[in-house]
């Protein structure tokens, strides 16, 4: 089928939060083209947009330094690095510090620092010794109550602050406080007094300790922030929620590393927390921070809050956080990682799903009414996405001819006007409003971030020219900004390109090869675990660009290239439909490939053993399903070196997937086919062994049928049977019956249904769906997710029936005729299943008469089945009911027994 070249639009389908699979991860379901983390103040990273976790976590923790460690680093006159300081403060054993105090250090870091280190920083080291002694006990004692859910219960030792002698501990800390000369160290002892009283639930004493020992020092650094955090906790314990909330707010405002915990504490303290904070805010900074928290908490429409923040300070860093969260929300709506189109024209989004049927007969469930309406909106929009860049009324030659072909071809996507959107007005308005806000802010703010954001929003709106112009005029030295600008220029260039030809492929390799070339695997750090990632890698810009090109090639009619942009050659086994296989083979054999085709696309022609044999088996299988045994033999003769269907298996020794090794005598996609394929069912049980489910016919007249064959030998045997079947005797009847058996047994209903669809066993899967619709090909935009979506040409049961008819007409044995008629009836049953799958019920679940209408529809199906698809059952019942064969069948086949009644 000729495809028409259309302009790819970047905006994709709407992301829905309801997922069929409980393990799906929404943070892996869009392309992350706009990097949220380019904000300058990294302390706000936890508050970027995330659906998978309460706070955003996709960043290195080292990007948010702990102000406490920074304070200690300064105390030690920067003699230690941040990492060394963090180790000394948080991880070093108390015994190592005591050894340093005694003048005999053994810890390598302390040895390196030298013997004078303790004398120089004596007060600080002594404090750390005391703090490390107290630390295991610094947990609040758990008391079960209705409002104690936020307290941490120690799972291991069960130690808490009440295990220490209260009076002795307070006395010791007070003495150390009074003895300390360094104001910061003195304040740290004050912090310990506040914390100890908080955790022993002496809340009033905690507040007094803060007033008497922390505030008088008049330092507002890390010790003060930590003490204020503890005071707020004590105030919450006293029910002073408004005061607690205000102090937690100050911790949030002034701390870099404690914003998450302070935010959670504010939530726990007061349900009206952020509104109350806004009332107390007096400075511009406090007001802006309060507005941020209010907008973060209620993110339905953040723009009104952002407007207020803009009025206070257009250069505010937290305003950028609100903006990037809004951009990310839009990106999730516009850029899902998968989309498919069903034969009825509706677009569905499907991720990591397995096709599985519980029975031979596919049951089709109808979507609910509201879902149908939703998907209709989607398909209308998506059809618009691929609209022509030229006006269809223009008269510049070939483009108009293609438009006419497109509009007259019902199998292609009709062109819609660019004002036809899939999404609702609220989503569209949000994009428009955010673009207006960003355009306004970029004129007032000195931060180039706003220009980048404005360019990206224009990219989402398909205004690639304006987006590129903005990017070209941005002058910045910020490396994160420069990387985002570079990426967006690439996106604008590729997405706006009307055709991907050889010249453009050369341009891709010359200028953008880094987005397509295979990345070298980075050796795993020794601290990393081998935990399996169920979601794979987070979708990237490179993944998005591959999808863009895959779609372009698809619409240009280059299916082979489109397929290989997202899949391996070996993936053809999962859906070996002939037209796609031919297109992939044409690309494989294409001479003079461009550099892009060689290095980027052709690299996915992976190891399948002998590639020519791989293609030959697929073509031979299709010929067998069409009963063209001569053509099949010709293909199979080129497949003698076939090394087996390429499958992987888990190697427990190497702890990775490795190519499967076929055991001697096992079916591998070509060899070791049992002669039971010529037999008939004893009962329908795909899980049972061949000997349990199948019974041999009498092969004595046909010595060329071997007990075990490869596909070449099987095709040759069928050719010989076909010649014998041209006769008029009992032998010819037997030959035609055996041919019919093979065709039926290798159909979707047969025990050997795997033989001619590149599968290894007959277990349920997408290859065995009943759907004879001419438009059942699910690939309408590209071939991404190919192994999850199946399209194989449907079985032609008339081929088997025709051979059975020849057998019936030349047979004189009544028992044999009964057997043949039953096989014909079974094949006819397959034709009914195809009809049923092609005509699903369109009754809406929301219809109050759904049950009544469904029953009526089922009665209609039953009537059609009995009138049109029970021909051979009726003949068997009327003329051969008294045969031993019919009697045995009634006992072993339930639906035949029911029909005979």
From TrEMBL:
Region annotation (Disordered) maps to: 390-410
In terms of domain of life, where is this protein from?
A: Bacteria
Please list the residue ranges that the record marks as compositionally biased, kind Basic and acidic residues.
390-401
The molecule here is called Tetratricopeptide repeat-containing protein
